[in-house]
């Protein structure tokens, strides 16, 4: 399995993974967000896909924040339901952390309702706040 940057041709299949994990509304919205990688904004998201034998099994996004250039957000970590719990999510998150590590003195931020323990145990993210008692706002400092 390889992790590589998203290409335009992958947008449909990646948004379909979101549709399978969530619903049609998020499928549609994620397709719009994925397209932003090929736009002209200064704050373009970067997406990476996990691919095996030509099949996309998951993807994850990371983007520099306009709040501060040292802050980077991780979002849309999504693995095909049939391929979950095989280590693909870990490989994708490791990839986006590796990309941001090259920037030095950066802070990674993410919001998760379901799996704060996952980010804590495997990547040392810390919860810095709770939102609506259901979301963990988490960060990881990179030196
Ligand atoms: C969450 C997700 C990205 C993890 O990717 P994955 O490839 O399935 O996970 P990995 O195989 O890398 O890691 C497995 C670990 O994650 C945990 N995990 C996976 N999905 C989980 C879930 N929904 N709830 C709690 N733990 C979960 C497993 O228990 C396992 O823990 P362990 O390593 O301590 O045994 C994937 O399950 C997914 O796409 N879920 C639906 C979308 C989603 O919730 N995205 C996260 C938004 S923050």
Distance between the termini: 29 Å
Radius of gyration: 15 Å
Q: What is the CATH domain class?
A: Alpha Beta
CATH superfamily: Gcn5-related N-acetyltransferase (GNAT)
CATH A-level architecture? 3-Layer(aba) Sandwich
The secondary-structure class comes to: alpha+beta
Arithmetic mean of pLDDT: 96
Query: What level of helicity do the residues show?
Result: 25-40%
Strand content: 35-45%
Shape: globular
Number of domains: 1
Description:
α1 runs antiparallel to α2. The chain has 143 residues and is of the alpha+beta class. The protein contains four helices and seven strands, in the order βααβββαβαββ. A seven-stranded mixed beta sheet has the order 1-2-3-4-5-7-6. The mean pLDDT is 96. The protein is globular. The protein has a single domain, classed as Aminopeptidase. The structure holds coenzyme A. Coenzyme A binds next to β4, α3 and α4. The site of coenzyme A has 16 residues, from β4, α3 and α4.
């Amino acid at each position: 399995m390889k992790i590589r940057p998203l290409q335009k041709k992958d947008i449909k299949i990646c948004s379909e993974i979101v549709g399978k994990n969530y619903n049609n509304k998020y499928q549609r919205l994620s397709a719009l967000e994925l397209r932003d990688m090929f736009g002209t904004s200064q704050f373009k998201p970067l997406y990476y896909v996990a691919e095996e034998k030509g099949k996309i099994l998951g993807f994850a996004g990371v983007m520099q924040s306009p709040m501060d250039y040292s802050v980077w957000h991780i979002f849309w970590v999504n693995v095909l339901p049939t391929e979950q719990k095989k280590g693909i999510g870990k490989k994708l998150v490791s990839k986006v952390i590796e990309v941001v590590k090259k920037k030095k003195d950066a802070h990674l931020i993410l919001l998760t309702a379901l799996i704060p323990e996952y980010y804590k145990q495997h990547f040392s993210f810390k919860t810095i706040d709770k939102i609506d008692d259901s979301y963990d706002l988490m960060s990881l400092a990179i030196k």
